[in-house]
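User:
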Amino acid sequence: MLFDPGVIRFWEGRWQPRYVEPMRCLYETELVYVSYGEYVLQYGSDSCRVRAGDVFILPPGMWHESRCGRRGDVVRHCVHFEWMPAEVSRYGKPYEVFVGQNFDKTRMCRVPDGIAQRLPLFSHVNPGDSLYGIIEMLLQNLRQGNSAGERLLWPVVSILLDPPEKNERTAPRHRRNTEQAAVVVRDYIDLHYREAHGYDTYVKLTGMSASSLCQAFRHVYGQTPSAYLSDVRLSQAYRLLSDNPGMPVCRAARAVGITDPNYFARIFKRRFGTPPSTIGGQAYSS
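Assistant: Predicted structure:
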């Protein structure tokens, strides 16, 4: 089964030494990534020491408490989400209760049965891991309020549920979610078309192989990611030249991530049937 989890709230911040987050219970599922420091997490009847690089998922309805040590700060990044956002909207509603308050189970976000039994779930990532890169992109996009942030949540969660190293011959669930992987790549291209990137980036973003990703993207959008990137760049360049008469063609090319002006002029004419200089640009100015 495929899911399209929706982000309800995103929080990140620093805890000071000796800080204690009181025992609480959430109505939502929480994904936590610790980028600095360590602390003790008590959850249910268990406890563990959480360190930098750890990432875990706590289910709704689980009482837990966090305690920092005497030395060193802790930096956490927390994403509250629901697995099937179409079922219920929790935006603006209370998301936690503390000891002494009533926890209303009827308001708890539902977790799919096949996943609920696997939570809480703990893992660890290191710089250079594919999951580390996806988490960094997830957090960056959530900070900026980009839609790609929400699209990246499922790849992160699905890798945690089915780590590739534990089953190398069976593709993780997120790799089978080809349509969502294509959407993630499209959103990334729309946001970063000015930058230099290619299949290495898309592979890290989705966890799919380059060939599988290309096939999935073509199935959804009728063209390869490279062709889509080229179309986005050319469309943006056309707009730049139209809105800015006299803009040098090479400057318009660089503005959309194409460094070779001759190549830019060639593919521009192939796409629009006319040289970029006729749209209002100066052919040989720099």
